[in-house]
Amino acid sequence: MTAADHPADLVVRGVTVVDVEAGVHRPARDVWVADGRITRIVPTAGADGQPPAAARIVDGSGRYLIPGLFDCHVHIAFNGFLGVESDFRRTLKQMLVHGVTQAVDFFTAGGHFPGSAADRVRDDVNAGRFLGPWLLTSYGCLNAPGGFCSCSVGDAASVVVTMDDVREQIDRITAANPDFVKIVYDDVFGTLPNLTPDLLAALIDEAHRRGYRAAVHIATVDDASVAVDCGADIIGHGVIEPMPPELLARMADAGTILIPTLASYESRSLPRWRIALPPAAPPDSVAQYQRQRKSIYEIKEQIDDYAEAYRQACANLNPLLDAGVTVVAGSDAGTWYTFPGDALHRELAIYAEQAVAPARVLRMATIDAARAFHLADRFGTVTEGKEANLVLLGADPLADIAAVREIDAVVLRGRLLDLDALRADITEPYETLPTEVDEEVCSPHHLRTSVH
Question: What pLDDT sits at residue 53?
């Protein structure tokens, strides 16, 4: 069989493929890509391994090829530029330059109506009309009147008061064809209104009846326990109290997915002067975060509370894994000081700091995430037949997960991206001025120890 029998647009030649499922290297491989998919993986020295003359060749020698990363908890417009379409688009580019080729959006303010800017971005990206990671989104956020989402974004959140509201609000959310439904069950230690357990159960049941999975924002052990009892499919944050073994067992038995968002907890536990900004941080995003941080979080009590929340959420990670709970990587990127893409790299580093092996950490951001979101037939491994979302690294991620920062190339749907051009786009000023924080609605007291 000759190269003519296997056309290729792109060949990564002589690369070490990282088998994320087995946690091993497959050295000296040529990875062929055509029509956006991986078509062949062959030994570089093989008799039938000569690439077609027309293929673009990427030198993979001394490098490591991994599947594109998942960030399973992001907000593509939650950094103060709510409803600005140029911001949605730039956020997606930020993720790409960090090797994030699939992302799960946990509520984009103003984006849960058909035809909205966020609606168009998701559809444009997934149809290949605009550059960005494959995107799943909840669009909306369901909560009690004056609850956490309402406090954060006002009328963009959906409010549920009675059982009669359940179907109406699920109608409203699902009209935009989301990929899942997001619900907040968190009273922020008694400072905000919350749904009742009966309303939470009814919302989850109604979502399930229509074929949607339910992701629930929680904070405490009681929050998580009620959410699991009510049938939550996904827990959107790490729990900030010690998790009892019986809760861990119930989550494992139910197949509940948990997304730790430890990078978000950490960012809130540090004063501004200790937060390292990524090289490609958009300057106006930084300025907006600084304004929000000053008005909301630059308070010693807040920082101390978050430090304890971060410590405990970290302490729960290994018990979750040991109990067999499905844990997938997600950073809460797009909220305060959690920059898209860079936040996922920090999230993975935190897992490693909790003594999770690099191979396991890499799985949590690739094949485990793909399976959790029913995308394993398309993404999550470097395998023939899957979509060619790939990241070429200059260092070995099985030796040190920090290697995910050593990105030499990103391939998206079979296309080799121009990372320099993307970085230049990211640092361009916004088309629209940022909104200011409403300190009457979102007071420091109301936002204690909560993340999105």
Answer: 83
Neighbours of 33 (CB within 10 A): 25
- Indicate yes or no: pTM above 0.70: yes
Q: Compute CA distances 64 → 51, 60, 70, 391, 417, whole Å.
A: 19, 7, 18, 8, 17
Q: Looking at the structure, do residues 210 and 124 belong to the same domain, yes or no? A: yes
> Which residue segment(s) compose the domain that 39 sits in?
3-66+381-425
Token pair belonging to 445:
């007291």
Which of 344, 360, 377 is at the close of a domain?
A: 377
Residue 444 within any structural domain of the chain = no
Q: Distance between terminal CA atoms of the chain? A: 54
Residue whose tokens read 């309402």: 150
Per-run averaged pLDDT (10 residues), the chain, 452 residues: 69 98 98 97 80 91 99 79 62 95 83 54 86 92 88 74 94 90 91 95 98 97 98 98 99 99 88 56 58 50 79 98 99 85 97 99 99 99 99 99 98 97 78 40 37 56
Per the structure, how many domains does the chain have?
2
* Torsion-angle region of 301 (φ positive above 0: left; ψ -120 to 50: alpha; else: beta): alpha
For 120-172, give the DSSP string: HHHHHHHTTSS-S-EEEE----EE-TT-HHHHHHGGGSEE--SHHHHHHHHHH
Q: Is residue 432 part of a domain?
A: no
- Do 407 and 277 lie in one domain? The reply is no
Asked if residue 409 and residue 345 are part of one domain, the reply reads no
And the tokens for 416? 């080799």
Q: Which residue has the tokens 């960012």?
A: 267
**Residue 189: CATH number of its domain:** 3.20.20.140
Residues 61 and 73 in one domain: no
Count CB neighbours of 347 within 10 A: 28
CB-based contact 231:238 (threshold 8 Å): no
Contacts of 321 (CB under 8 A, 6+ apart): 327, 356, 360
